[in-house]
Amino acid sequence: xxxxxxxxxxxxxxxxxxxxxxxxxxxxxxxxxxxxxxxxxxxxxxxxxxxxxxxxxxxxxxxxxxxxxxxxxxxxxxxxxxxxxxxxxxxxxxxxxxxxxxxxxxxxxxxxxxxxxxxxxxxxxxxxxxxxxxxxxxxxxxxxxxxxxxxxxxxxxxxxxxxxxxxxxxxxxxxxxxxxxxxxxxxxxxxxxxxxxxxxxxxxxxxx
Length: 208
Known about the structure:
Blueprint: H1 4-19, H2 26-33, H3 37-43, H4 47-70, H5 75-91, H6 93-97, H7 99-105, H8 107-133, H9 145-158, H10 160-166, H11 174-185, H12 191-195, H13 199-203
């Protein structure tokens, strides 16, 4: 059985996702799990403390995903990791929809989030350069090519939820985000690289 702090975090994520951070009060969270506002405030003084705790939980899950694939950087594992990253974003979608408001309100968390962004871009760049080294992507003397591609990949995965929300999509499909990611990478694949593309992508005829 989950303790009170865990129940507060779970309820906060649920309510933030449903209504947005600004529309949810501490009273709403307390009422949802059936505790007093005083009891909730004992654990978390305000919403910023709750968001900090959620970010810490989210960061731990993201790092576990990155570290798992870093040990085995195959295209299949990259595909699975990208799917997992988007699914994680959907699970904590309020953070991605309200990112600017959150980091304006909480400068410390904003700094941590920017550090994560840089790490994620560097991580993608490392994977792409490894793929070029192993002959799965074209070799290039342009040192910025895969760095820029890494930023485009990050941008696609990071803002897929916002784009879907703005366009009025009721359902966000992680598979569509990952297919778009591979479309960005497609022009740089070698024949060897195309052979290693995950089977599910070949099925949808992403690779001609």
